[in-house]
Amino acid sequence: MIVTPADVPHSWAIPSLGVKCDAVPGRSNLTSISVQREGVYYGQCSEIRGTNHAFTPIVVEAVTLKDYADWVSNQLILQTN
Fold it and tell me: What is residue 18's predicted lDDT score, i.e. its pLDDT?
């Protein structure tokens, strides 16, 4: 995944997946994760930048490869209509 913020520095973190990625405006940062189980994983921005910034919700939904491929196919169909 490539992370680049449009506004201020962020630090994208999902502790249960063992991932934290800093995002600095004007720079691209690359990270990858390998999720072993389907499910919903929650995280937060770990870079404090103003009121409630640390409470910025981050949600990752891990699905099977088939479910992901079906979702991509549906998105392509929606774009062509």
Answer: 92
